[in-house]
Amino acid sequence: MHAIEGTFGISALTAGRSRSISPENPTGAPGNGGRATEGTGARAARDLGPGWKVSPSIDIPAGATAVLGEIEGPATIRHLWLTTHRDNWRSLVLRATWDDADTPAVAVPLGDFFCSGWGRFAQVSSAPVAVNPNGGFNAYWEMPFRRSARLTLENLAAEPATVYFQIDYELAPVADHAGYLHAQWRRSNPLPYKEVHPILTGVTGAGHYVGTYLAWGVNSTGWWGEGELKFHLDDDEEFPTICGTGTEDYFGGAWNFDVPGQGYTPYSTPYLGLPQVIRPDGLYESQQRFGMYRWHIPDPIRFERGCRVTVQALGWRSGGRYLPLTDDIASTALWYQADPGGVPGGALTADELEVC
Fold this sequence. Notes:
Layout: E1 17-21, E2 58-60, E3 65-72, E4 75-84, E5 92-98, E6 106-109, H1 110-113, E7 124-125, E8 129-132, E9 136-139, E10 143-145, E11 148-155, E12 161-171, E13 180-188, E14 197-204, E15 207-217, E16 229-233, E17 242-243, H2 247-250, E18 258-259, E19 263-264, E20 267-268, E21 272-278, E22 289-295, E23 301-303, E24 306-311, E25 314-317, E26 321-324, E27 328-337, H3 350-353
Parallel strand pairs: 6-13
Antiparallel strand pairs: 1-12, 2-12, 3-11, 4-9, 4-10, 4-12, 5-6, 5-11, 7-8, 8-9, 13-27, 14-24, 15-22, 15-23, 15-27, 16-17, 16-24, 18-19, 20-21, 21-22, 25-26
Pfam family, one: DUF2961
InterPro entries: DUF2961 (IPR021345)
Protein name: DUF2961 domain-containing protein
């Protein structure tokens, strides 16, 4: 059925075909769901047999990589749902490879991809990412590809991980102007004194930047968010084209996220938020930790030849002077570009990812 002329949005009828990959249908083939006779739910379903939740999840051994889904295109992933124990949120690495590229375009710790870099639950109610009780991860980033998609999870932990997931996608032609989703993760722990944290590096060619998530651990007393985010576009060198006015300003907040009488105040909106504030307990948790996102969906940052993004870490010292900070900053940058190949980011090792 062809689209109705002049009709757009959810009411438009198209020739697309909906498919879904999960442990209950690992290939996404039509009429192939719920056929498993073995799986993680087989014992619970032993009195009921096939079709009764025999294979709701997978177990990923320590040090192993599991293939969540391999899909032939052209198609677009519309929704990714996943859950696992929170101990695995920083020890599982999500990768997505488009059109058989040599390097994955998405290579990010699982929790950070879903705005949950600290291994603690916090409600996220944004347009492309939702995190619901208790650890239900949802991503609605549009992920088109033309020939193939391969999604994997690598388990860097010393223990096996049980993972429940579902990949919902649509088989349909992909427009010539559609870009491939990319995600790069980087961590500075600690950020060297008077240096800036690199949120995104190494990107060349045309595309547009669509999102930032920061997991920020404060290593000093006082306010920590005076630093500016800077977008170096195309031929920018020392000075950027886009320069913000402060960290909390970039994420849509103001005045230190500090509401009089209640202090740091979490919020989650469709395109920006500070959903997580972890306060010290005075004993074992000696540092404040924050999680914040901004999605450039209504306001994508477009570039023609390249993009580099940084953030400063600044507090205050005596005399009303800025204090360069040496904080623990982990960033996830998301963008679309014409090349399906990935741009390597920070080291994705167990020690580098560990929350400590």
